[in-house]
Amino acid sequence: MKITRATVNVTSPGRNFVTLKIETDEGIYGLGDGTLNGRELAVASYLTDHVIPCIIGRDPFQTEDIWQYLYRGPYWRRGPVTMSAIAAVDVALWDIKGKALETPVYNLLGGKSREGLLVYCHANGKDLDHALEDVAHHIDLGYKAIRIQSGIPGLASTYGVAKGPGGYEPAERGLPSEAAWATEPYLRYVPQLFAKAREQFGEEVHLLHDCHHRLTPIEAARLGKELEPFHLFWMEDPTPAELQENFKTIREHTTTPIAVGEVFNTIWDAHDLIRNRWIDYIRMTTVHGGGITHLKKIADFASLYAVRTGCHGPTDVSPVSMAAALHFGTAVNNFGIQEHMPHSAETDAVFPHHYTFKDGFMYPGDAPGLGVDLDEKLAATYPYQRAYLPINRKLDGTLTDW
Question: 208 Cβ partners below 8 Å, 6+ apart?
Answer without folding.
Answer: 120, 145, 146, 147, 148, 232, 233, 234, 235, 236, 259
